[in-house]
Amino acid sequence: MDFNKNEEKYNWELAFCTLYAGGKYDNNSGDNYSYSLGLNGLGLCSTQFAAEYMEVESNNGTWIYDLRFEKGYNVEKEERGFRRHQSDGTTGTKIKWKPDLDVFTDIDVPFEYFDDVLRRQAVVNDGLTFVLRNEVRDEETGETHFEEHIYCYENGISDYLKEIVGDTALTTEQVWSAQRTGKDREDKPEYKVKMKVAFVFSNKVQLIQHYHNSSWLEHGGSPDKAMQAAFTNQIDGWLKANSKYNKTEGKIKFTDIADCLVFISSNFSTQTSYENQTKKSITNKFIQEAMTDWLKHQLEVYFLENPDEAVKICEQVLINKRARENAAKARDTIKKQLSGK
Q1: Residue 227 belongs to what H/E stretch?
Q2: Cystine design at 100: which of 52, 75, 219, 311 (Cβ 3.0–4.6 Å)?
Q3: What digits encode the pLDDT tens for the residues 50-77?
Q4: CB 249 within 8 Å of CB 303
Q5: Using one digit for the tens of pLDDT, what is the confidence trace for 113-129?
Q6: Domains and CATH numbers, the chain
């Protein structure tokens, strides 16, 4: 919060009022921010500008700094733009704000949105507890009270996988992790990626989710392409090697695998190329290549060390393939009958 001599501004101005002020972080330096999601200085600043008001209390263990913004302006009367008083030794930051109806057409964000976001954050931050206090109104009395919801997955994606699958798994849970260093192009700097996946096969539950730097990749991108390539390659290779295909039969498609796969990935990298600002998909070439090679190798070892599970997986995928093809043939036959051809 204090004055930043390098930038000749107070730090609160940089954090809350200057777009992209955080872009000076060196993610490859190995400091605390190496695997952070944001750091370009857009999210916090744009939230402040789009708020009817924002109140900030930041405690660094020595001092507590208080700020208030209204309609994008700091309204503290202190010349420095903040009030400061002695800390009790604890640390942390509290931010309270209200979205501005002059900016948004609707600010009634449903509970389900917060529930989903905090659950996903708990999944990818092992052992970290998130608490959501939701104010609800009693329809009969009109009185309000707070309901508390706690989110914590001690073992991250592994616990989340167990919660999703329950007792429906065909195979044992697999949890793999690795770290690689590389670059997206020869003229680009090297960066690090930490990869972790958890998966099982099930003929009752199907789910694929990818996370990167704690953000849910709704549209996947590089990790999804890597997963599809690796699983299709290894399962197709096993089916061929064990003569499971019929003589004139075509190879499997990933959709046949997805019909019985529950797969979650959570990766962190020091450099990330997002498809757009919503961060729903990443495009890193190196991450895709590294994850593909790693998953291929891991699957090869897994099949060799667990031949019974390899049989279960590959035969279920083959059943899915043939069911899909038979359904397509039946659909075509019905179409011809209905069209009179």
Answers
A1: helix 222-241
A2: 52
A3: 999 999 999 999 999 999 999 999 999 8
A4: no
A5: 999 999 999 999 999 99
A6: 3-106 (3.30.565.10), 109-154 (no CATH), 157-329 (3.30.230.10)
